[in-house]
Design goal:
The structure holds two protein chains of two kinds. The longest helix of chain A is centred in the C-terminal third of the chain and has 24 residues. In chain A, helix 6 packs across helix 19. By secondary structure, chain A is of the alpha/beta class. Chain A has 24 helices and 19 strands. In chain A, strand 7, helix 12 and strand 8 form a beta-alpha-beta unit. A six-stranded parallel sheet of chain A has the order 9-8-7-10-13-14. In chain A, strands 15-16-17-19-18 form a five-stranded parallel sheet, sandwiched between helices. A four-stranded parallel sheet of chain A has the order 3-4-6-5, with helices on both faces. Chain B is mostly helical. Chain B contains five helices and no strands. In chain B, helix 2 packs across helix 5 and helix 4 crosses helix 5. The longest helix of chain B has 14 residues. Classes of the chains: A alpha/beta, B mainly alpha. At the A-B interface, helix 16, helix 17 and helix 22 of A face helix 3 of B.
Chain lengths: 654, 113
């Protein structure tokens, strides 16, 4: 797809065509064959076509190119472009469709910024980039191979899209059907390769020249990094990577990247929201992906204290400290007269309930709030709503709607609230604070009492698992990089979540298999920042692409993975049981402990041995709760020495 | 309507703070609790979790539990008498009442703020 080279060296396309002809008829020099030549009688070649060096020697051309292709390759220029964006790593699985860029990155680019991290699966590469961003706020680039590599990557890309996380996906694709190698590379090529991810990327492109690549790469980075963040995909033609810059030459330039600002709310809407909040008797703030940075947490604390409003953190980011007396569980919406929703992924589900127990197998809807409750929404996701995939959830009518970034809007909203505050309203704050502090203390006590039930049980209760872990890490600068599989939300209920990196949220699209790679990616980022990374790793999640364990060991990424091994895809265990109950029949367990097809047992997977085989320190299975604390302590020492460690812990279902 | 009345009566019974000793067999109940899938939402010990409330040492009376299991239209799917009989539910009730009482959270160091 690139322009024909105007340089002195042989063009790849011409060379490949020449080589093809050589297989049909002996020629003395590579040249563009005519149709008649291709159809010429078959002869066995008596000699290989002459090399560039032979041609040069025979024609007397003493100006030998310093490499076989006769000039700087296009992929070197691509590396020049990529390096301007300060991308630290490229977690990728190697592949022929981007072999030229791969070679340029590790040799011309000296394997620095980005450094190539070897991955076993494209989904792992995307997942690592996903987790890395949540710590650093900076995207990574991951390379994927043609049709099949991009297909492997898709679920990870969908998770990133739903979680509003930028990932730069660079795909290889050999587009010229007339000159690309036949067979496998042609199976791996496509006419519109990014079509498969277009519904869940913010933007994609297929640049057809090096200059277009430079613009595309910088544009893609900018789009990905403009809230709402999201993945972008750029497909690179193999020829464009491999051919010399040649005629593209001296005029090439690299556009400068400047960080875009986030879209903030319109001032009229901001003032109306402030008026409603200040006049409310019981304002409630619900935050989901509100805090993009640590600064965002501080802004939300400021707004909540100004209003003495309860805050429900839905947990797709760490938005609000759970130790703050205004922190409340989800049920607090019931008594609200005004609700401010900040970057909610599901506003309908926030204020309504769906009970999966209807008469005819269809769930029942009911309101969780009073009919008079006023609703305010600030969400940038409204700016990128697409049609096909249903991540936009059910439609919820709100009274004030701001399609804008919540964190960017909060400073203006805080000022508007201050302006709208009357002295009478301000005077009520002390009384409201006193009441809120007492209620908060009661909630904490109830959570601890619930955690004490089945404290000594075997398999180990999820509360015990989480609190044994917290007991060991709480004095570190810790980061819970993922908690996949359901542990009844104990970390958010009982750990002190006060810093933005204490909790990174969930996968976004709930595509299982996010936890393991995202943990490794986030741990990589934390390694560079000197933080201690821990993950609660479920069994089902790990087995989708366990090869990422090897990546962590190979690249010396310290991570403590404590398994929530309930030996099932437990959510599905309950779903099948539910269906059987509705249909008034016993569920068939076969030889397992739960419905056929939902259990991971007979045989049990020895995750500790799996991890050991890939270079991890590991121990298990741990079934006795009394042995858990000492094992965590032992594993922590390993992690502190710079290695990953895994504990295979047998747990209760949730 | 009969089931709703029964549940309402059970709730009233609960609110009065009364509970009855079970005639069920706790050992059989342990087995049935596993075979019928109760553990999936409530945990092997009936400790509860994000999918289902605590049942261990429940204050709910036995007939209230039986009526609820057969007739619920809340988040839990109903289990008819064909799937789990009253006698089996009595055994399950006995099992749940036999679970060790949890220690006071204030005495567990790991649960201190």
């Amino acid at each position: 797809m690139s322009e024909p080279s105007k340089g002195s060296g042989p063009d790849r396309r011409r060379f490949l065509k020449g080589a093809a002809v050589a297989g049909a008829a002996p020629v003395l020099a590579a040249s563009v064959p005519s149709q008649a030549q291709v159809a010429a009688p078959r002869h066995t070649p008596s000699a290989l076509p002459p090399s560039i060096r032979t041609i040069a020697a025979e024609t007397g051309d003493v100006h030998m190119p310093d490499n076989r292709i006769g000039g700087k390759p296009g992929s070197d220029f691509m590396v020049d472009v990529i390096k301007t964006l300060d991308i630290r790593y490229t977690p990728s699985n190697c592949a022929s469709s981007f072999r030229a860029l791969h070679e340029s990155l590790i040799n011309y680019g000296e394997n620095k910024a980005p450094e190539f991290l070897s991955c076993m699966h494209e989904e792992s590469g995307v997942g690592m980039a996903h987790g890395y961003f949540k710590i650093t706020g900076k995207p990574l680039m991951t390379m994927v191979h043609g049709t099949v590599g991009l297909q492997h990557a898709t679920m990870g890309i969908y998770n990133a899209f739903c979680d509003r996380v930028p990932v730069i996906i660079i795909g290889g694709n050999d587009m010229d059907a007339a000159s690309r190698p036949p067979g496998v590379p042609t199976f791996h090529a496509a006419q519109d390769i990014n079509a498969i991810v277009r519904d869940y990327t913010k933007w994609d492109d297929t640049p057809t020249s090096l200059q277009a690549f430079a613009q595309s790469m910088v544009r893609g980075y900018k789009i990905a990094m403009t809230p709402p963040y999201g993945p972008v995909a750029i497909s690179l033609d193999a020829g464009l990577q491999q051919e010399p810059i040649g005629g593209h030459g001296s005029g090439l330039y690299i556009p400068k990247f400047n960080m875009p600002s986030a879209p903030s709310g319109e001032m009229g809407a901001v003032k109306e929201a402030a008026r409603l909040l200040v006049n409310a008797e019981n304002p409630v703030i619900v935050a989901d992906r509100s805090a993009r940075t640590a600064e965002g947490v501080g802004l939300l604390v400021q707004l909540a204290e100004l209003l003495q409003a309860s805050v429900i953190d839905q947990g797709n980011r760490m938005n609000f400290p759970n130790t703050h007396y205004l922190s409340r569980p989800a049920g607090a919406v019931a008594s609200a007269d005004v609700i401010l929703g900040l970057e909610l992924s599901d506003f309908w589900g926030t204020v309504n309930a769906y009970t999966d127990n209807g008469e005819h197998g269809i769930g029942v809807n009911s309101a969780k709030i009073k009919p008079t409750t006023k609703l305010i929404s600030i969400s940038a996701v409204e700016l990128i709503t697409k049609s096909n995939y249903q991540d936009f959830q059910r439609f919820q009518t709100v009274d004030v709607s701001m399609p804008a970034d919540a964190q960017a809007t909060l400073p203006a909203l805080i000022e508007a609230v201050k302006s709208a505050m009357t002295s009478e309203r301000r005077a009520q704050n002390d009384q409201r604070a006193e009441k809120a502090k007492k209620a908060f203390g009661d909630i904490r006590g109830r959570e601890a009492a619930a955690a004490a039930v089945a404290w000594d049980a075997s398999p180990i209760s999820t509360a015990r698992l989480c609190m044994e872990l917290y007991g060991q890490i709480k004095n570190e600068d810790w980061s819970l990089v993922a908690s996949e599989g359901n542990v009844s939300n104990w970390p958010n209920r009982l750990w002190k979540m006060e810093k933005h990196h204490h909790w990174l949220g969930r996968s976004g699209g709930y595509g299982v298999g996010y936890g393991a790679p995202a943990s490794v990616g986030a741990a990589l980022a934390n390694r560079d920042l000197g933080r201690f990374s821990v993950s609660i790793q479920s069994d089902g999640d790990l087995m989708f692409a366990p090869g990422v364990l090897w990546t962590a060991a190979k690249h010396k990424i310290p991570l403590l993975a404590v398994m929530h091994n309930n030996r099932a895809w437990h959510q599905e265990t309950m779903h099948v049981q539910r269906m059987a109950s509705f249909r008034n029949r016993d569920s068939n367990y076969g030889t397992d402990a739960g419905p056929v097809g939902t259990m991971i047992q007979n045989p049990d997977i020895e995750y500790h041995k799996l991890a050991e085989s890939m270079g991890w320190w590991a121990k298990g299975p741990i079934k006795d709760p009394a042995l858990l604390g000492p094992a965590i302590k032992e594993a922590m020492a390993v992690v502190k020495s710079g290695q990953p460690a895994l504990l295979n812990v047998w747990t209760q279902p949730r | 309507m009969k089931k709703i009345t029964s549940i309402a009566a059970s709730v009233a019974f609960l609110l009065l703070g009364a509970s009855a000793a079970s005639a069920g067999d706790a050992q059989k109940g342990s087995q049935t609790f596993r075979e019928k899938g109760c553990w999936q939402c409530h945990g092997f010990e009936g400790q509860g979790g994000s999918a289902g409330p605590r049942l261990a040492n429940t204050q709910l009376p036995e007939d209230g539990l039986i009526a609820f299991v057969h007739g619920t239209n809340g988040p839990m799917p109903p289990f008819s008498e064909k799937l789990v009989s009253d006698a089996q539910l009595s055994d399950i009730y006995a099992y749940l009442q036999s679970r060790p009482k949890p220690a006071d959270a204030k005495t567990i160091p790991l649960l201190q703020p």
